[in-house]
Amino acid sequence: MNTMSISARVVLKAIAVLCFCMFGSIAFAEDKVTPEEARAIAKEAYIFNYSMVLMYRTMYLQAIDKQSPSFSGGFGKWLHLGMSSPEDTDIVSPNNDTPYSYAWVDTRAEPWVMTLPKIEDKRFYTNQWDDLWGFVLGNPGSDEDGNGGVSVLLASPGWDGDLPKGVDRVIRGETDFLGTLTRTQAFDADDMPNVQAIQKQYKLEPLSAYLGTDAPAAAPAVNWMDWTEGDEKTPKFWEYAAFLLPYTTPNKMDEKILADMAKIGLERGKPFDPARLDQDMQDALAGGMQDALASLAKQATTFDDPSLFFKSRADMKTDYNNRALGVFVGLFGNVKAVSIYFAEPKDADGEFFDGSKGSYDIHFTKDQIPDVKNFWSWTMYKLPQRWLVANPIKRYSIGSATPGLVYADDGSVTIHVSAKSPGKDKESNWLPAPDGPFWLVLRTYGPGKSIVDKSWKMPPIPRVK
Questions:
Q1: Sequence ranges of the domains in the chain
Q2: What is the pLDDT of residues 409-451, one digit of tens each?
Q3: Is the Cβ–Cβ distance between 384 and 377 less than 8 Å?
Q4: Contact (CB, 8 A) for 52 and 248
């Protein structure tokens, strides 16, 4: 009888262990975190993963979804665009100075070689590459290499092969998938044929094709998650994060946040099913998500230097908040060595810009004109979407490269910002606004010393009384 009792206890203990293994994720909150702690972790986890999930959205639309209007043809294929317009909604806050070329590469099987052609000295181009975390990895082109042409290797985080002959350097991030937003300056709409001729020379090829050798075995097929607009604001966000984490290489800097994420059931290599959580935990995760979104939305109206958000891992380290905020306000923003942006949400009186309430004048004295090597421009965005604004003269940005921009005799320049024309005599310097809230961004390409060291100051922008 004693033997049977011991056996029964062993069996019961085994069953208990098995049940914990099978169902422990449902009740993990009782053992590890309270709902209050889970909500705080969920807020941080949402901010940590936000960039990756939103980068996936763009990659999905451009390289995966064959039904997407912006499908490029797949990985390793270019999507060349003209000058941005209000119809372009793939990313928020697009610029209108340098027509975009997008491409994505899958580096799991082998690296890729990207080649830029030689172009004329007066034109600016840059081949920015980011990983799925939104870290800026490199900018082959005018600022890093000049305009003489260059080839670079795009590799996975763990690649350690030899640099091929004719290739300048290696670019790698912390994810298996990399994306580029390549910018090619257009002097005006009539210059687009020249831009398109340059875009056609941008080249991407697998390393084996570049070397003329046999291709390695293909990487395992991916069962891609379908993207639906707005998913980032639903519980499905966590499923995207769990799906994407295996395509990242963990960085030691992220050990703490990754450990905290595991406490709410979000772990690399494991599926995430919110439906398996009890209601308290589901509420905690939803609350954390709302806390994060509210924080990002508030911060998006209070900063004046978007270049804070676009950096390499070495520069950004564990600043997950600014990393997320950069994607929240404008995907694929560039590092300050290439361009520095100034976001202006309010007028000289501290009121938010609104085209239905009046017009505004941006006035630079001769000494206040931005110090740049290349050029500067103002771009108009309607809120809350941060998309370009449709208008009768089809002008979405204005700046030093705008044909016909009129300067005063004293060397100063005034930009007129309004929903309605300021008059035919002033339309050369008119930046049309929406009949409602808007957001202005000043971009400086090749920023000079006074902009980099922040001694240059933005003049106040008054509402015309």
A1: 29-303, 338-452
A2: 999 999 999 999 999 999 999 999 999 999 999 999 999 999 9
A3: no
A4: yes
What does the alpha-carbon distance between residue 277 and residue 25 come to, in Å, rounded to a whole number? 7
Residue carrying structure tokens 């004295």? 365
Position 261, amino acid: M
**Fold adopted by 338-452:** Jelly Rolls (2.60.120)
Please report how many Cα atoms fall inside a 13 Å half-sphere around the Cα of residue 333, on the Cβ side: 29
pLDDT of residue 11: 38
pLDDT higher than threshold 60 for residue 189: yes
Architecture category of domain 29-303 in CATH:
Sandwich (2.60)
Average pLDDT score over residue span 274-292: 92
Q: What is the pLDDT of residue 374?
A: 87
Residue 273, phi then psi, degrees to nearest 5? -125, 95
Contacts 24+ apart (CB under 8 A), 398-404: 398/429, 398/430, 398/431, 399/97, 399/375, 399/443, 400/369, 400/370, 400/372, 400/375, 400/376, 401/97, 401/185, 401/187, 401/188, 401/375, 401/377, 402/188, 402/377, 403/187, 403/188, 404/428
Q: What angle do CA 148, 149, 150 make, to 5 degrees?
A: 130
Per-residue tokens: 295:
């924080």
Tell me what pLDDT residue 304 has: 61
Q: Which residue has the tokens 């350690």?
A: 160
Taking the alpha carbons at both ends of the chain, their separation in whole angstroms is 97
- 343 has a pLDDT exceeding 60: yes
Helices 320-329 and 279-299, interaxial angle, to 10°?
Answer: 70
Q: Global pTM? A: 0.80
3-state secondary structure 367-427: CCCCCEEEEEEEEEEECCCCECCCCCCCCCEEECCCCCCCCCCCCCEEEEEECCCCCHHHH
Q: What radius of gyration do the chain's Cα atoms show? A: 25
Residue 306: predicted pLDDT:
65
Tokens of 434: 């929406």
% of the chain at pLDDT higher than 70 = 92
Q: Do domains 29-303 and 338-452 have the same CATH topology?
A: no
Q: Which pair of structure tokens corresponds to residue 349?
A: 């009186």
Task: Write phi, then psi, for 153 (nearest 5 degrees).
Answer: -100, 130
For every residue of 84-149, DSSP letters joined together read: --TT--SSSS--SSS-EEEEEEE-SSS-EEEEE----TTS-EEEEEEETT--EEE-TBHHHH-SS-
